């Protein structure tokens, strides 16, 4: 199975369009060790021919332009795509807005939990993807499902989805309730185990949003070949400390890399083949390869995803 991380930044990308924080400035200036990144998305393929996208980011057009495998092949019909299906892990803007760029009456299958597909159905702009051409299929939780393309052909990949502690999408929050935390662990945000038929031992877990690591998640991840995990923030109050916003990571539904209950410490005693941080926010100091935080995370056995990073399992 081939995995390509086509977008490794969190919502906003890196640099973010309106961000004047030192990291975004360094990325814009082309400083060595500070590499720009597009917004969160993963492509997976059993054979390098047909591909399944996990999330469709606002940068999808740029991501396809940077990824020849996702472009129409030379001998393919005049209008075609190797993208057979898109799986959504939540309804956040950085994970669904790219669907609008996949219009043009091109068949592929769209998968999500019933919560997330309800959000898509509730917003008529997504009807640019006519459900007669882009069928919407509910992903049941805790059940392995063979992913099929729009015509029902098996893509060769299976996913098992599971709810993780997270949050409803920002644009669904009710701003009239200042004390609500909008936390959710019932299917608004999911992780997925991606595997190739009969190759369960080389499955990868993709969890770009997760508020905390609990015992159930640790158990699920034990002996995984590969984990691509929420690397939004290094510290919970990082955005407040940087002066760019009032929210903690917990308020946004994201665990931090550091700290006693952070991802590095919480997963330290779980046997995982490769552990890679994805969905990295533009305030996270690990984005600077020369930072002590980057060195610490690498020393703890984690990789920091960059756009175009490929994993073969
Ligand atoms: C998130 O990951 O928390 C969201 O992408 C934030 C957003 O929608 O801007
Ligand atoms: Mn996001």
Automatic annotation (TrEMBL):
Keywords: PQQ biosynthesis, Transport. Residues 51-280 form the Metallo-beta-lactamase domain. Transmembrane segments: none annotated. One of its GO terms (biological process) is pyrroloquinoline quinone biosynthetic process. It holds the Pfam family Lactamase_B_2. It comes from the Bacteria. InterPro entries: Metallo-B-lactamas (IPR001279), PQQ_synth_PqqB (IPR011842), RibonucZ/Hydroxyglut_hydro (IPR036866). Gene3D superfamilies: Ribonuclease Z/Hydroxyacylglutathione hydrolase-like (3.60.15.10). SUPFAM superfamilies: Metallo-hydrolase/oxidoreductase. NCBIfam families: PQQ_syn_pqqB. May be involved in the transport of PQQ or its precursor to the periplasm. HAMAP family: PQQ_syn_PqqB. Belongs to the PqqB family. This is Coenzyme PQQ synthesis protein B.
